# Entry
Amino acid sequence: MHLLHVSDLHFRRPWFHWLRNDAPAHDALVISGDLLDHRLPDVPAQMAWVGEWLQASPVPVVVSSGNHDLEWDAARYRWQPAYWLRRLSPPVYPDGTVLEHGSLALAPIACTQHPRSAAADGWVVHTPPAGTGTARTVAGLDRGDRLLAGAVRERGPVFVFSGHVHEPERWHDTLGATAVFNPGCNPHGRFPNHILLDVASGEVRRTTDRLHGVHTEQAVISAQLVLH
# Structure
């Protein structure tokens, strides 16, 4: 089983087109939030476009909400959960659902959810757990979620798929026995940073598009042994 993991698409439509037409072969797509961009106009139109794109996916899509995906409640003058995502149906698996695919169960956790945990092998979240290289910026600032880190230590999921930190110190790390991923985000890339994980073998690679060309890094993790 191959999982393709991306995050922080921020309504870059060429990236959505790349994911549908040019991405490496995968059995399920994992998106760790911030599909929309509140800095751009007409957020309701963004929701409609992205919702249609997700609903037409040829493979299951497990998607957690990020801070840019929240809905503004003008009457109460506050942000509320991404209900527009929760209204979608399979092949989309949004906040609060679980995708069971073979021996693997994946659960997206909303950025507003408390507690930050789920009964699944893999958690899909927006902000990485604090104390990991996936949460630290290249400048050394930890922008991670401490509540999530505590839940990971307590529950011990096999995988955590995250985003939010656009230039993480590390694109993969561990917290206890849990493998944590964050592909990062290069806004100037022709395609989104992406991680391709072979769940059976533990082989994982991240590919980025940089000014000097396409760059690929590879690793092998041991967490997949828990699934056998």
Remarks:
- The chain has one domain: 2-227.
- Helices lie at 13-21, 43-55, 83-86, 146-155.
- The first strand starts at residue 2 and ends at 6.
